[in-house]
Amino acid sequence: MGLSIVALVAAPGLAHAQGADLFYERAVMQAADERCGLFSPEVGQALASATAQARGAALRAGMSPASLRQTQRAAQAKAAELDCAAPALAAEAGRLREAFAGFVRVGRLSYPGDVAGWQADRWSRASAWRLKQQVRFGADTLTFGLAGREDAQALVAVARFADGAKPYGARLILRDTARTSGPYLDRWIGGPTAGLPLSRRLPPAPGLAVYMAEVRAPAGADLLAAGERQGWAFRFPAAAARALAALDPREAVAVEFLFPGDAARRAYVEVGDFAAGEAFLQAALR
């Protein structure tokens, strides 16, 4: 953002936090776009991705959800006051449009997290992965995220088990937003969450939702990580992807693989900027 946007939409009392300022500026322009139709769908989606990423960065840096909601409301109120025909707004929209025009053409992006990040790839021909996070759990490995060709993207988990074990099923475990009031971050009392293990970012059992995988199959070559020759792929329902995108970026989810004899192996995935990465992918589909 240039200096003009700061003068145009500066939020009194919010200058104490750089992360909050960045989120505020992007949220104002996103709300102004919804009201005034400033951008093409591609640029609007790119702005949505950038806004989601700024939100995640502010939360991980220690900004409280309540403060972030206040910032969001302030941004929406400011956007409601703006004159859609104002030269200053048109000029800022033009600068933003030019900045994000290049973003729309970017094929790959990395979204770092506290523990693990997401890798987005919109155009790969060799791999079916569009947004993925790679995890080690014990001697086993997991690749988790969105995979598919064109706009046929599904939430998928691909696991390779060092001992050749064959799971009969898998389930995704995450916070149930309808039964909880917010993220459960065990023993977290404010401030950055970088030192908090993923295993302590899930609520107790009463606050959990579970999505069973719909499909199990041997993983194809376009889903296997480099150097891997075999693995098991599981596809989760579309509702699971929507639930994941709605979580706080500081949270974690668990992918649990089920074996005969009531045995299970669990891998943890950081929510991070999943929603921002998903919006980045959508910008290429419009």
What's the total helix number?
A: 7
Mean pLDDT: 87
What is the 3D form?
Answer: globular
Order of helices and strands: HHHHHEEEEEEEEEHEEH
Structural class: alpha+beta
Biggest beta sheet summary: 7 strands, antiparallel
- Low-confidence parts lasting 5 or more residues at pLDDT below 50? 1-17
Distance between the termini: 24 Å
**What is Rg?**
20 Å
How large is the share of residues in beta strands? 15-25%
Q: Care to count the β-strands? A: 11
Tell me roughly what share of residues is in helical segments. Answer: 25-40%
**How many distinct folded domains?**
2
Q: Indicate the multimeric state.
A: single chain
User: How would you write the strand order of the largest sheet?
Assistant: 1-2-3-4-5-9-8
3D architecture notes:
- By secondary structure, this protein is α+β, with helices and mostly antiparallel strands.
- It has 2 domains: 103 residues, no CATH class; 164 residues, no CATH class.
- The chain has 7 helices and 11 strands.
- It has a 7-stranded antiparallel beta sheet. A 4-stranded antiparallel beta sheet has the order 7-6-10-11, covered by helices on one side.
- A hairpin with a 6-residue loop joins β1 and β2.
- α3 packs across α5.
- The longest helix has 20 residues.
- The N terminus is likely disordered.
What's the layout of helices and strands?
Layout: H1 3-9, H2 18-36, H3 41-60, H4 65-81, H5 87-105, E1 108-111, E2 118-121, E3 129-137, E4 140-147, E5 154-160, E6 169-175, E7 208-212, E8 215-218, E9 232-236, H6 238-245, E10 252-259, E11 263-270, H7 274-285
Antiparallel strand pairs: 1-2, 2-3, 3-4, 4-5, 5-9, 6-7, 6-10, 8-9, 10-11
Helix pairs in contact: 2-3, 2-4, 3-5, 3-7
